[in-house]
Structures are given as structure tokens and as C-alpha cells.
Amino acid sequence: MRFKIYECVNQGVSQNVATAVRTTYFSIIGNATLALIKGLAGFFGNSYALIADAIESTTDIFSSLLVLFGLKYANRPADKNHPYGHGRAEPLITFLVVGFLITSATIIAYESIQNIGTPHELPKSWTLIVLGAIIIWKEISFRLVIKKSKETNSSSLKADAWHHRSDAITSVAAFIGISIALIMGKGYETADDWAALFASGFILYNSYLIFRPALGEIMDEHLYDDLVEDIRKVSLTVNGVKDTEKCFIRKAGMIYHVDLHAKVDAHISVKEGHNIAHSLKNTLREEIPQLGHVLIHIEPFEQNPLHANN
Predict the structure, then answer these.
(1) Which of 84, 130, 142, 187 could form a disulfide with 41 if both were Cys (CB 3.0 to 4.6 A apart)?
(2) Do domains 2-218 and 225-309 have the same CATH topology?
């Protein structure tokens, strides 16, 4: 029975890894294609905002490759030196992805400021068509990847999803900047560059939004109230479990490790308490497949004497 439960858990994790890897390949192919389209459109269409977009998409390719590496490494099985597995590699990869975002935002900001002070031609009107298509595609990509990140509990995949959203926002900023430049005409050529500068600020803001949850994961911050509630509900369905006390959860990659204090009848034998603990552990892993290590600490349950007399 125990082997079947572990096998089920491993199969669930493997399916999540496979889903996350396929999603990352989708991101890599999409970003490579868009980087090429944006770069060519920006160069021939006199739009630095599009070139800035191309720079971000290029860094997105490398960050997606990092995510791919992190997903595969983080889901290596536990070994002698890593009894809890390698899941903590995933938030570390997320930090590197954030570093790529910050680097691209800095480059875009610097080049934008340089271009604002340099006279140049108005962007071509057809660049708006390119941007419109890019915005739609990147928003679709964001929704698809963020959905998969929730299904797989992957923080690095979530970071990859926000790359798509950041890309969509920078494209919106570029669309607005180019539109202003084209409508207002001569003297407003730099509207395109101001849009790119604004986009760099937004990328930095999103970098913080991606960084903060990953930091919480590394620091074992308590962020899982809904899961704790589910664990308590399942625990009370196990024969012999009277109540639960402390419940601590640590996330590592796509799985959650649990320390749970369970109350059992104070007058049963040690062996009976041991059997209840194993039954509880197996039930939790069977009912909540994303759980990894489950450590059960048995506490004595003393019935209230006043309540017992009623």
C-alpha cells in the first residue's frame, strides 16, 4: 500500500515536470521568434521601443533556458546529500531570471535616455500593426504559462509567465509612444523612446513581484493557509486521529513538505499511536498528491472531564 502511494506521488510530480518543461519550450520558441520579428521591425521601422522589446525578448530566451534547467535539476530524486530532494534549486533559478529582467530593464533605460537626446526619424506607421499582433500573442502566452504554473506549483514557471506579461506591457507602451509620435508629427520623435523608458520601469516593478514569492519560499515563509486547512480536514478522516495542532509547510520545487502534530487517545499503546501516524501519513499523501515528506508528531488527546460527565 505504501509503495503504491509513493508511486502515485512520483507519477504526479513527473506529470507536473513534463507539463512545465513543455510549457518552457513553448516560451523559448515564442521568444526567439518574437525577438527576431521585433528586432527587424524596429531596425527598418525606426523604432527604438521595438528594438528595446527585442532586447527583452532576447533575454527572455536565456531566462527560459535557465527555467528549463532549473525544472529538470530541481526534480531530481532525493539522495544521500539531499534527503529532501533538489526542489530549492527552483527559487534560486527564479532569482537568476529576475537578474536577467533587471539587466534588460537597465539596458533599455540607458539606451532610451541616449536616444531621447539624439535626433532621429519618426517611426514607420506599419510598426503599429506588428506591435498589435505582438501584444495579443504575448497576453495569450502569459495566460497559458501562468495557468500551467498554478497547475504544477512551479515558481520559476510563474516567473517565466510574468516575462510574457512584461513583454506585453512594454509592447503596449511602445504602441502608445509610436502612436503619439505619428499623430503629433515632427518634434515628437522621442515619444517612442519615452515609451521604452517607461517600459523599463515597469519591468523593474515586475522583477520585484517575481522576486518576493521566491524569497518567501527560500526563507520558509508561511504562505499556505489553504493547504493547511485541507491537511487538517483530511487528517480528521483518519481513524484514531482526534484533532490536529501545529502544521508547518515548506515548499521545495513543485512539492510541499509537512510537519504535523496529531492528537490521539492518550491511553493507547505506543504501537497503536505509531500505526495511526503511518495511516495518517499515507492518507495525506494519497489525498493530496503534491505533498512530499510528511512528518507526524503524536500528541496525547485528553478529553475534558467536565465534558465527559455530561
Answers:
(1) 130
(2) no
Segment 170-225, tens digit of pLDDT: 788 878 888 888 888 777 777 877 887 887 887 788 788 778 878 888 888 887 88
The grid coordinates listed for 283 are 492518507
DSSP label at residue 85: -
Calpha distance 219→250 (Å, rounded): 9
Q: Summarize pLDDT for 42-54 with one digit per residue, the tens.
A: 888 877 767 777 8
Residue 174: which H helix or E strand, with range? Answer: helix 155-184
Of 18-22, 261-265, 303-307, give the lowest mean pLDDT range.
303-307
The C-alpha atoms of residue 148 and residue 264 are separated, in whole angstroms, by 39
Domain assignments of the chain as residue spans, ordered by start: 2-218, 225-309
Report the Cα 66 to chain-centroid distance in Å. 13
| Domain covering 225-309 in this structure, CATH number | 3.30.70.1350
What is the number of alpha carbons within 13 Å of residue 195 lying toward its C-beta? 27
Selected residue with higher pLDDT from 49 and 273: 273
Q: Which helix (H) or strand (E) holds 248?
A: strand 243-252
Q: How far apart are CA 4 and CA 10, in angstroms?
A: 10
